[in-house]
Amino acid sequence: MIAIALILGFFFALTAEIIPCGPLYALLHPDFVALLLLYWAISSSSELSFTIVWLIGLLQDMVLGGVLGTQAIAGVVMIYLLYTGIARVRSLASWEQLFFIFLLLLTHRLLVWLWQAWAGTVTWHFSLLLGPVIGALLWPLFTLTLDYLRHALRLKHI
Question: How many Å apart are CA 73 and CA 70, to the nearest integer?
Answer without folding.
Answer: 6
